Amino acid sequence: xxxxxxxxxxxxxxxxxxxxxxxxxxxxxxxxxxxxxxxxxxxxxxxxxxxxxxxxxxxxxxxxxxxxxxxxxxxxxxxxxxxxxxxxxxxxxxxxxxxxxxxxxxxxxxxxxxxxxxxxxxxxxxxxxxxxxxxxxxxxxxxxxxxxxxxxxxxxxxxxxxxxxxxxxxxxxxxxxxxxxxxxxxxxxxxxxxxxxxxxxxxxxxxxxxxxxxxxxxxxxxxxxxxxxxxxxxxxxxxxxxxxxxxxxxxxxxxxxxxxxxxxxxxxxxxxxxxxxxxxxxxxxxxxxxxxxxxxxxxxxxxxxxxxxxxxxxxxxxxxxxxxxxxxxxxxxxxxxxxxxxxxxxxxxxxxxxxxxxxxxxxxxxxxxxxxxxxxxxxxxxxxxxxxxxxxxxxxxxxxxxxx
Length: 404
Known about the structure:
The protein has about 400 residues and is an alpha+beta fold. It has helices spanning about 1-10, 10-20, 30-35, 35-55, 105-160, 170-225, 360-365, 370-380, 380-400, and strands spanning about 60-65, 70-75, 80-85, 90, 95-100, 225, 230-235, 245, 255, 265-270, 280-285, 290-300, 330-335, 350-355. The chain folds into four domains: about 1-55; about 60-70 and about 260-400, Elongation Factor Tu (Ef-tu), domain 3 (Beta Barrel); about 70-100 and about 225-255, CATH 2.40.50.100; about 105-215. Helices cover about 50% and strands about 20% of the residues. The strands form three sheets. A six-stranded antiparallel barrel has the order 1-10-13-12-11-14. Helix 2 (about 10-20) runs antiparallel to helix 4. The longest helix is centred in the N-terminal third of the chain and has 58 residues, at about 105-160.
């Protein structure tokens, strides 16, 4: 409307004054088009040009929102709630208790693991005693071997001096006894090695396994207690003792972090504005949650990818024409002055306009001559969008309440 009024002032109005005052022609409702056709045509062309220039270099959008993240309150494993520590809409700090699941099964597993460790320790003490017994048996067998060997040697010496004193059967019996003593020694050593193996390998492995089971049970007990991972407010939390919580099917509630989304807005501009939007560009927004207020913002980040182009591998080939929505260029906005957007609730929807500025390029000498003059005029045209967004802020209560 502003563009049309301005265009009419320098096209239709001069044409009307010239036709009626200078040429003296009578302009009626029926002769309006014929008499003022040049002025009307020039007004339409100029208005369209102004609108195109203004909205191209000063893009506007109705897709501005303050996004914030939420944290789902769930446990690592399903279970029955035993105790609840918070209530709905309560503010919590990082590390505060939220709820605890029943851990009777985990406590029983931990007690079983402790008893198993004690059992292994007792078996280890017994194995040390068995090793001492085995060592004694080895010493005994070695003594018996020495005794049998000495007796065999003495008898063999006697037989060499006088064969009638010691018979061949007696010598054979002594040799058999020596072999038997050697077998007993080997058995005693084998028994000693078995006991030593239990002490060095089997029992430590059993104890380590029991300790691992104890650690697992204690970890499960710790996981049964759910803590707040960040500062925030508990929402949609109606959990009661005895309820079943399942990390897949039934979360306990939602935690809204305190700092998430505070004072930061995301705006989606049309793709035609991709070359105009720049980091540091001044913008203005007005929100339904804070009417009659225009908040100055600044662009701090521009996403270099448009969401409609993302591709996820599936079992079907993607047809580009199926992407009906063209997608927008995402720009992240923050208040130009600290604290100006604190009163705007997170998640609010707003409208906004960005203002291009070529002043820095002109002062740096990158734009000169006629181009500099044109760019100055283009930058000044942003006042039209500034008036529009202020009109929207004033008319917002009427539009939302009277004409919803």
